[in-house]
Specification:
The complex is a heterodimer of chains A (about 290) and B (about 600).
Chain A (H helix, E strand, L loop, with lengths): L2 H19 L3 E4 L4 H13 L8 E4 L6 H13 L4 E4 L2 H5 L11 H17 L6 E4 L4 E4 L8 E3 L16 E4 L27 E4 L7 H11 L14 E2 L12 E2 L5 H9 L21 H7 L4
Parallel strand pairs in A: 1-2, 1-6, 2-3, 6-8
Antiparallel strand pairs in A: 3-4, 4-5, 7-8, 9-10
Helix pairs in contact in A: 1-2, 6-7
Chain B lengths: L9 E8 L5 H11 L7 H11 L6 H10 L11 E5 L4 E5 L7 H9 L4 E7 L6 H13 L3 E7 L8 H17 L6 E4 L23 H7 L13 E2 L2 E4 L8 E6 L4 E3 L3 E5 L3 E9 L8 E3 L3 E6 L10 E4 L6 E12 L5 E2 L4 E5 L2 E14 L6 E2 L3 E2 L4 E14 L10 E6 L2 E12 L4 H13 L7 H8 L4 E7 L5 H14 L4 E5 L1 H4 L4 H4 L6 H17 L3 E7 L3 H10 L5 E6 L11 E3 L5 H14 L8
Parallel strand pairs in B: 1-3, 1-4, 4-5, 5-6, 25-27, 25-28, 26-27, 28-29
Antiparallel strand pairs in B: 2-3, 7-15, 8-9, 9-14, 10-13, 11-12, 11-15, 12-14, 16-22, 16-24, 17-21, 18-19, 18-23, 19-20, 19-22, 23-24
Helix pairs in contact in B: 1-3, 10-15, 13-14
The chains are: A alpha/beta (about 290), B alpha/beta (about 600).
Chain lengths: ~290, ~600
């Protein structure tokens, strides 16, 4: 059993535990490489099916190709696809691209708040109807009590402090200094009413593991991750106005793996193309305490 | 399965030891000596120290890396990465953290081997022993002991030898044979990457050599097969008719054609196929894999059962166990309190029956205590509300490990040393054998439920004598029958002169056997998909446990007839007024609807 097998088996175990232990379980899908690997692992865990709804927070500023990719796979793989968004903020133009807020405030409006209110069912959710292939307002407004998220601990400081099953309290707060122990494939699956649990099956994976697994399994990836001849590619995907590509001529999965192995990026953070991380020092940790993924 | 043999180039290690004995310094030195640091980092930290007139310490390097972790991947706050020619290492560590033990347990449970650091100057301290003991409980057998800060004792061989002698004695008691003892100085670098002229008397391994000499665990496949059932999946809605028993294999291997037996139920069938998505078709799969298989026959099994193979060593089944556990919860573990108990995929309620002894992990001395405090290690007997399947630690350690949940959080963990006898052992043995020998239908439980539009269910009507149990049962039977339900009323008296004819005359102490037979008959009727109504006098909680052990459904409703419940049986509905049989039957019917046994029209 090699390194990728070990990672895969542990992640599958975690996904199955989550599926068995949580009644209202959802999985966040950002269309990026990590959460797409997560989605693939779910197909592995459930023998080709994905019995867990996928939740996408649509900021309306995602790179259009990402939405196309999302809906194509949703139809092809018969995914139970849900999206939510902050329509108020968009209508009132309380966004960074409209010039009315900072990047961080924009993230809070379009992602954090949209996510919180999509998960708790306060704002409308849109669910794909596979008969019509279109989205409809979802009648089910039950809050999600378990949320599967594709974060990895090597991505960025605050993510490294997570457990596989990390509790969040009523206010989505997260006490980093005092986390429950987690051992022997036993996880926190009991939670007080009103709280929920974030589940992180990819915690042990590195950026290189992700790409090697994408290659091994031949997982379809949005083409933004590859150079289209302009000497640039995205290493991490977000909203168009706040995400910059890196200099790279890697045109396919093999070349991305080669590039990572040369150590070209070993001193550059994976999310360095994500402008909101830098805006005020501990940007992401603050956002994450607030519920950002 | 050829790909299984590929050398795994990664190893997780954990570094433990008393506070300030130099764990961070060792890590910093390992990073520096394996050239795992970002370029110029070491010089930069040294320069900062010089400017602030602080002596340089490798631990500062670690702090500096943590501050800047967003810039690279050498370190994150839970893990440190470095590599030797032989393999990549991941140190799982949280040095200096106030919640160290919680994090250490979390980290160590993911590690294959450990470095245990002891300060040569301070000698063996409380946590040197406590951490050693925890490693042993967590099942980490590959340990190297680093006697650190040798520079502070002038590289004195006798000081080193005394620590080795004393600590070896301690490790023997907890069944750890260290791979090596190494005298080192993390600060000066002696014996970390190369042997040192300061200690000509030491000719053993360096720290890096001892790491490279650790073996990556290859789990043997020739042990008994064990797979805790995570779930049974069927995705019939998506047009998939497979019914797949899924789980991670904890021990051994399984092949198509093997006869698997599930415990605690004792049910069995042959493996028809091994399933997977986007993986090569295989007829055999072994330890470590998250897998699933289909069965030749349709048997009803649930999450929480432990799959094994007939003819191999059987797992134990009991509701009383002798354990060795450690407690991490803020509130002490107390007698009389109920805790959630999880082993494999089964989850039950546990209570302390007896605390045999509380062991001081730092000197292995015993104390008799009434509760188990935070960071205590204790030997105790636990009683579970239901029998579960597991192994004793000396047989298969992985399936002997459990955790205890208090107040929604994992608060303790331990290993099962021994399965003890419980009151239901005899009944259960008969049930497991009966299930094993059961002649299976090709119609599944779910198919019957769908066809009959009801779930099979047992309604137990009990109370004192002559309070109107039978009239109520008969009214309820007729009501459900008129609704088109498959329902049957069985008074316990109906068994006495037939099924129980042989034991009726000997009477007296045969209540247990009467009950067992009642439950066996009930089991057959329930297996047919029926709703069964049984009346019996004065049933207790213990009687209910016997019945539950024998029947194959969770759907049991208890009805007490009478003004006062005079036994300890948990009651779903109490009926005090038997004048209105119609109304009371409707109440029971409402309960069945609420429980989803029968359909509730809009």
């Amino acid at each position: 059993m090699n390194h990728l097998d070990k990672l895969e088996n542990r992640s599958i175990h975690i996904l199955r535990e989550a599926y068995s232990e949580f009644n209202n379980l959802g999985m966040l899908w950002s269309i990026g490489k990590d959460s797409t690997v997560l989605l693939w692992l779910a197909r592995k865990a459930f023998f080709g099916h994905v019995p867990i709804p996928l939740i996408h927070v649509d900021t309306n500023y995602k790179i259009p190709e990402m939405i196309e990719h999302r809906d194509r796979l949703a139809r092809e793989w018969k995914l139970d696809m849900i999206y939510g968004q902050n329509t108020d903020a968009l209508e009132n133009k309380e966004t960074f691209p409209d010039g009315n807020t900072t990047r961080l405030k924009c993230c809070k409006n379009l992602k954090t708040n949209a996510l919180k209110n999509t998960l708790n069912g306060v704002w409308p959710r849109y669910r794909m109807n596979h008969d019509t292939k279109e989205y409809e307002i979802d009648k089910n407004r039950e809050p999600f009590t378990g949320v599967i998220v594709g974060v990895r601990s090597d991505e960025e400081g605050s993510r490294s402090k997570e457990r596989y099953f990390s509790p969040r309290d009523k206010n989505n707060d997260w006490d980093i200094g005092d986390q429950p122990p987690e051992f022997w494939n036993q996880y926190k699956t009991d939670f007080a009413p009103g709280t929920h649990v974030r589940i992180h099956p990819l915690l042990d994976w590195t950026e290189l593991d992700i790409w090697e697994y994408i290659k091994r399994e031949n997982i379809p990836m949005v083409s933004l991750y590859f150079d289209q001849g302009e000497g640039k590619r995205y290493r991490s995907l977000g909203c168009a106005p706040c995400t910059n590509p890196v200099d790279s001529t890697a045109k396919n999965v093999d070349e991305v793996i080669e590039e990572l192995k040369t150590g070209k990026f070993s001193n550059i953070a994976e999310r360095s193309g994500r402008a909101q991380d830098k805006e005020d020092g501990g940007g992401l940790e603050e956002l994450r305490k607030d519920g950002y993924m | 399965m050829e790909h299984l043999n590929k050398q795994d180039e990664n190893m997780n290690i954990v570094i433990v030891g008393h506070v300030d004995h130099g764990k961070s310094t060792i890590i910093g030195r390992l990073l520096a000596d394996t050239n795992s640091l970002p370029e110029g980092k070491l010089e930069q930290v040294k320069e900062t120290c010089r400017r602030n007139s602080k002596p340089f310490e490798y631990a500062f390097l670690l702090d500096a890396l943590k501050d800047e972790q967003s810039q690279g991947i050498t370190i994150d706050s839970a893990r440190v990465f470095f590599n030797t020619k032989k393999r990549n290492y991941i140190i799982i560590d949280a040095p200096g953290h106030i919640e160290f033990l919680k994090n250490m347990v979390t980290g160590a449970s993911r590690a294959e081997s450990a470095l245990l650091v002891i300060d040569a100057n301070e000698g063996i301290k409380e946590n040197s022993k406590r951490h050693g003991y925890m490693l042993s409980m967590l099942g980490i057998k590959q340990v190297s002991v680093l006697v650190n800060k040798m520079d502070l004792v002038d590289y004195d061989e006798d000081t080193y030898k005394n620590i080795v002698k004393e600590y070896t004695k301690f490790l023997e008691k907890i069944d750890i044979k260290p791979e090596s003892f190494i005298p080192v100085s993390g600060m000066m670098g002696d014996a970390v990457a190369s042997l040192s002229d300061n200690m000509p008397w030491y000719e053993g391994q360096t720290v890096l050599e001892s790491l490279d000499n650790f073996k990556t665990k290859k789990e043997p496949e020739n042990r008994p097969f064990r797979m805790p059932v995570q779930d049974v999946y069927k995705f019939t809605k998506d047009g998939d008719n497979r019914r797949i028993v899924a789980g991670n294999i904890e021990s051994g291997k399984v092949s198509v054609g093997d006869e698997v037996v599930f415990y605690p139920s004792g049910k069995s069938s042959k493996v028809k196929s091994i399933e997977g998505f986007n993986r090569e078709k295989t007829d055999t799969i072994g330890v470590g894999y998250a897998t699933g298989f289909t069965l030749e026959e349709q048997i009803y099994i649930k999450r929480g059962e432990l799959a094994s193979i007939y003819n191999q060593k059987k797992p134990k089944v009991s509701s009383r166990i002798k354990t060795n556990l450690f407690w991490l919860g803020r509130k002490p573990m107390k007698k009389g309190k109920e805790y959630k108990f999880k082993v494999g995929t089964s989850k039950v309620i546990a209570k302390i029956e007896e605390i045999t002894r509380v062991i001081d992990a730092s000197d292995l001395s015993n104390a008799k205590k009434e509760s188990i405090d935070r960071h205590d290690v204790a030997e105790c007997i636990l009683t579970l509300d239901k029998a579960i399947a597991f192994d004793e630690v000396t047989d298969i350690d992985k399936t002997s490990r459990f955790v205890i949940v208090d107040d929604y959080e994992i608060a303790g963990g331990g290993i099962i040393q021994k399965a003890l006898e419980d009151d239901l052992s005899e009944v259960r043995d008969k049930v497991m054998l009966r299930n094993y020998k059961w002649e299976k239908s090709i119609i599944t439980k779910e198919e019957r439920a769908e066809k009959y539009n009801q779930k099979s269910s047992l309604i137990l009507i009990t109370g004192k004598e002559d309070v109107g149990k039978k009239p109520l049962a008969k009214t309820l039977e007729k009501k459900l029958f008129n609704d088109g339900k498959i329902v049957y009323f069985l008074g316990i008296g109906n068994l006495l002169y037939g099924v129980d004819a042989d034991i009726k005359a000997t009477s007296n102490n045969n209540k247990e056997e009467h009950l067992r037979r009642l439950a066996e008959v009930a089991n057959i009727i329930l297996d047919s998909g029926s709703i069964l109504i049984v009346t019996a006098v004065g049933l207790t909680k213990e009687n209910l446990d016997t019945i539950k052990t024998s029947i194959d459904t969770e759907n049991i409703q208890t009805v007490w007839v009478g003004d006062e419940v005079t036994t300890n049986i948990p009651v779903d509905i109490q009926i005090t007024d038997t004048n209105s049989l119609e109304a009371e039957s409707n109440r029971i019917k409402g309960l069945l609807q609420k429980e989803g046994i029968i359909f509730k029209p809009w």
